[in-house]
Structures are given as structure tokens and as C-alpha cells.
Amino acid sequence: LDVSMDMWSYFHTCLVSIWLHRFYIYSAVAFGISLWIVIQLTTTRTKRKVTEPGTADKLGNGCPLPQAQEVHVAGVKIFYGSQTGTAKRFAKTLAEAVSSLNLPVEVINMGDYDPEDGLAEETSSRNICVFLVATYTEGQPPESAAWFCKWLEEAANDFRVGKSFLQGLRYAVFGLGNSAYVDHYNTVGRRMDRWLWMLSASRIMTRAEGDCNVTLSKHGSIEADFEAWKTKFLTRLQVLCKGEKKPCNGKCKKGKCKSSGKQSKESSDHEHGTSEHETTEAEELFETSSEEEAGGTDSVIDVEDLGNIMGHMKKAKVLLLEGVWNVHGVSHSGYHLVYFVCQFLQAKLNCLVICPLFSGYKLIGSHSGVKLCRWTKSMLRGRGGCYKHTFYGIESHRCMEATPSLACANKCVFCWRHHTNPVGTEWRWKMDQPEVILQEAIEKHQHMIKQFKGVSGVKAARLEEALAVKHCALSLVGEPIMYPHINRFVRLLHQHGISTFLVTNAQFPEEIRRLEPVTQLYVSVDASTKESLRRIDRPLFKDFWQRFLDSLKALAEKQQRTVYRLTLVKAWNVDELKAYADLISLGKPDFIEVKGVTYCGESSASSLTMANVPWHGEVVSFVQELARLLPEYGIACEHEHSNCLLMAHSKFQVDGEWRTWIDYSRFQELVREYERSGGSRTFTAAEYTARTPPWALFGAKERGFDPLDVRFQRKNKARDISGC
């Protein structure tokens, strides 16, 4: 017992001593840890000194051997687009030079490469991508590079693709051209360089250009131009191999790379009659603010106020389009005024400087347009169709997106064209005949479809089917119902066996009443109260609210399929359930589409941000709450990828099965009988319904994606800002 007491007393004494001297103990431990860290750092630095460039562990060219700890350049991929073989020959020559640096190198024909799948992988591969591309006839890319360039252009100008989509990809561009063709000299190389930059890829050096015109070539021939650039490229490559971080020696701004000093002079563009400064100034004048300059000028063109922008147009004419626009002869009424508007849009569409939001448009006559929908391209490749395919059974690859009127009577805050189309309250265009519009629309649509021949992943059978247009979405842009000959145009479409999906913004009630049967008639219901409609649609008509209500009443009089299209904008119109229910009771639509707003990028015309885009779960919750207020409607379908749901009237649920799909053959029979009878033989929506497949129904595991297709997921999906 005494021994135990002694041990406890000793132990207690030790604890007290440790506690009394705890400060010294803490200090000793901290000193020990610090000493260990210093030793580790010293050892690491010593190891690094042993492996620095210039020692036996490094090659003379500055590139690390494979056993180096960090690889700054994993390899080089050389892409070429060639018509006569010159770019291909240069690519092989460059590959041999890169191989001499003990770097992996791959030569790729752009025609054999799928940029949609492949380029995204290069953002993290640590490869250097080199693009050698020629400019062919009329400033177009070679046939082998046509799809590569088309995809790159659309990705750069598509608001659905994030601006940082190619962030991390390092590249250099060498263009091949002939300065004898002044208007199109090296345009493909310049545009490719710009598109890559717009997607946040990093230049490793200033774009270079080879000139086949020996009298103006910098080095006497295109071969000499290439050799001079190749030397600079190899030098730059060796610097990158050592870990150089600076992406480019030049000052990059707005898609152009301008180096300072001597290098700038050596790498400046050949304009041969048009200086780089003039071209840049012209670009800045005509580009909308949405893609690159959030603080730019609003690009809305009010037909009523067109005279106020004449001074701006005169400057544009001098800088870019002299000889194309006859600005001085423009009057403020009638044909001349309207022709000027068309020319303005053509400039945005077809000039060297292309407005990003109008990219891909094909203008028709004075006031119409056609464009290839991204869902058409998706379905051509077996990657799924649009929400209309899920809800109504259209074949997305056979759908033509068009409009007979580019003008609109609203300036909606979520306008996906950022108001680059003209606006007005009445028709002031030189009238184009419906036959001309339809013929050109089909021809231009087919031409765009044919460009997909040979593109990787495109299904041959669907490509062949796509040449025969079966559906027309009259919702491209503007207000189609403003076109005075809209009934003749719709009849022509039906006579060609083409179904019609017409969208109106509910500002022209009398035109809705006069409209002859279409396959499906939409009204955009973007808000449910007068004040919210004023804020969201920003209509031009002073009596917009009465026009809106009258349009809904006119819709209720229609016997064919009718649809309300609701676009939800978070913090703007998602809390108006009761008011929406009242409007639905007024127009009695057959269907109600509810879709989350699609973010279209920054714009001075709108204050919307990604924060205003509702999640799909929020859209579902809104629809479920709305359905509780509308006992005659049920939730029928869902297309998750478009953030969209469909509510349908209970009359389209027969024997417990939804019949939201359309029997298109039956519709064509009915509309032919209607026309032959002079309108006396009417028909109703119930006469051309079809059963909705299980995969399209709300609650199905497919979430609206057709199981016959394969869903495509981008490998760097996080870069994608929205899906619509």
C-alpha cells in the first residue's frame, strides 16, 4: 500500500511539473517541427537543382525526358484542312520537325475528326494543337475542313455553349491563302483563330499567314512563309516545354492578337487595301454586345425610329459596306425604308463580320429567314430530338425552322436574339410572295442539311430523310402572323405535306381570328398580369394588355390544336399561379407548355442572369402547383433536357392513355378536305390525335428522351451554361 501511495505521489508530482513548464514544452515541440520543415525544403531544393535544364537529365532542346516529374507539353496535334495538298504537306513537314524534339506528334485531317467530341478533351490533355488551314473559293474552307469550321463557328456563337468551353486548350494557327483575292485573303484562318479565342482557348503565339502571291509574300513564297513561321513555332514550343506559362507574346483583345514591337510588324495581317485597324473598327461597329461587350449599345431597331440611326449607318457604309448600302437614297416610308432594314440584317448575316446571334441564318427576300435548329443536327446524329418530338411526335431531323417576318412587336427580356431583329407594330416591308419564300426556304434548308454529308456520326438514313421537309416551326424569330399573306403561306406548306407549328406573341388578335387552320397554334403567355407583362415582354403597343387578352379569347375560338407557352423567369413571373390559372380559363388551350427561361448570355438589352434560370425541379414544382388549380388539365409529358413540361386537357386522355401526339397523315387529309370545301368542312383537334409513347410521359425513367437514340454527354459538361 505504501509503495502504491509513493508511486501515485511521484506521478502526481510529474504531472504538476509538466503543467507548470508547459510553455517550454510547447516551444520545444514547435522548434522541432520547424526544424523538420526546413530540412525537408532544403532537401527538395537540392533535388531540383540536380534536375535543372542543362544537366545530363535534360535534352539540349529544353524538353523534359519522359521521366521528368512534370510534363508541360505532352505532345503536339497538327490539324490540317487542305484542298490542293499544300496544308497537308506543311503538316507532315512540321510533324517531322516536332518529332526531332522527342515529342509525340499526330497529324489529323480535319475531315476525319469530330471536333464536338475531340476538342473538349484537349482542354486537359496538355497537348499543343496546331491548325493549318487554307482559304478556298469565295473565302470558304476546303471541303475536308467545312464541318470542322462550321461546328467551331456555331459553338463560338451559341449562347448554350459556355464561353470557357475550350479553356485550357493551347493552340497556334497558320493560314494559307492568296492575297490576289483581296476580299477573302486568309479569312478561314483568321476566323478559326477568332472562334477558338471566343471559346477561351489560349494562343501560344500570334496567328501567321502564308501567301501564295509571291509578289506580296513576306518571304517570297508561301513555302518560305511557312518555314519562317515553323522556326518561330519550334522555338516557342521549346520554351513551353520548360514550363513557360505566358500563352502569347502579343496583346490579345476581342479575338485579335496584336504583338508589340517588331513581332507585331512581322505578324500583322495582309489586308491589301483594307487595314487591320479598319477591319477591327468595322467589327466593333457591327457586333452585338451580348458575346463580348456587355456594356455596348442596345441593338434594337425600331421601325418607327429608324431615322435616328442614319448617322450610325453612314459610318458603317464607309467602313465596311460601301457600294452595298445606298444610305443616302433612303426615305422614311414605303419600300426604300424597308429595303434598308433588310440590308442591315444582311450585313449582320453575310458580311465578313457576322453578328453572333444571327450566325447560321439564311435571309430570304426582304423579310423572311430560315435557320437550322440544333435539334435537327442532334437527331441527324442519333443524339435525341427536341421537346416537340417528345410531346407531339415530330421528326426533329425533318423540321425546318423559319419565319416570314423577322420583325416583332415586343422586346422581351429573354429574347434569344438579344433584339438584333427589327421591331414594329405594322407591316412596312416590300411584300415577297409566299411561293418565293417557301421555295427559297426549302432550298436553303436542304443546302444546310447537305453540308452534313460525311460528317462523323451522322446517320445516312436520317440524312436522306431530312432532305424531305415534313414539319415547319414558324417560330424562328419575329412575329410570323404579321405577314399579310400568312394564310397563303400556310396553305402552301400544307400542300407540300408539311405540318405547321405557328407561334404568336399575343399582340395581333384580329390576325389570329383570320388565321386558317394550322397543325398547332401557339400563344406566348410570358406573364399573367399587366405590370409583369410590361416588364417582361416590353411590348410596343400602348394597348398591349387588351390586345393580349383579346388574343387569348381569339385562341379559344379555334377548333384545331392550341397551346399556351409559358416561360418561367425566376424572380419575375413564377409567383403568379392564380393569375395564370385565370388566363388559362380565358383562352381554354388544349395544351400548356411550361419551360424554364434559357439564359442567352449577357446583353445590354436585358438584365437577366443565370440566377433567373429555374432548375428543372423548380419547373416541375410550378407545374404541379398549377395543375392543382386546373382540375381539367393533367401533366402529360416531360422533356428534361429542355427543362420543359407539357400539361394537356383531360379530353386528350382517352381510356387512361394520353394522346398528345399528332397523326400527321390524318391532319393532311383533314386540311385538304377543308380547303376543297372552301372552309365549310371544319375539323377539330380530337380528329388527328395519336397515342403518346410511354417513354414520353411525365414520370417515365427516360425523362422524355427517346430510347431509340443515344444521349450525348459532353465530357466537360460543367462548361456548358444551359441546355434548351
From TrEMBL:
The chain crosses the membrane at residues 20-39. One of its GO terms (molecular function) is metal ion binding. CDD domains: Radical_SAM. GO terms for biological process: wybutosine biosynthetic process. Its cofactor is [4Fe-4S] cluster. Residues 392-636 form the Radical SAM core domain. The keyword Oxidoreductase does not apply. Coiled coil: none annotated. Residues 76-234 form the Flavodoxin-like domain. Pathway: tRNA modification; wybutosine-tRNA(Phe) biosynthesis. It catalyses: N(1)-methylguanosine(37) in tRNA(Phe) + pyruvate + S-adenosyl-L-methionine = 4-demethylwyosine(37) in tRNA(Phe) + 5'-deoxyadenosine + L-methionine + CO2 + H2O. Keywords: 4Fe-4S, Iron, Iron-sulfur, Lyase, Membrane, Metal-binding, Nucleotide-binding, S-adenosyl-L-methionine, Transmembrane, Transmembrane helix, tRNA processing. The keyword Oxidoreductase does not apply. Residues 248-297 are annotated as: Disordered. It holds the Pfam family Flavodoxin_1. InterPro entries: Aldolase_TIM, Flavdoxin-like, Flavodoxin/NO_synth, Flavoprotein-like_sf, rSAM, rSAM_sf, tRNA_wybutosine-synth, tRNA_wybutosine-synthase. Residues 263-280 have a biased composition (Basic and acidic residues). It is an enzyme of class 4 (lyase). Its EC number is 4.1.3.44. Residues 281-297 have a biased composition (Acidic residues). Probable component of the wybutosine biosynthesis pathway. Wybutosine is a hyper modified guanosine with a tricyclic base found at the 3'-position adjacent to the anticodon of eukaryotic phenylalanine tRNA. Catalyzes the condensation of N-methylguanine with 2 carbon atoms from pyruvate to form the tricyclic 4-demethylwyosine, an intermediate in wybutosine biosynthesis. Belongs to the TYW1 family. This is S-adenosyl-L-methionine-dependent tRNA 4-demethylwyosine synthase TYW1. It comes from Brachypodius melanocephalos (black-headed bulbul). The gene is Tyw1.
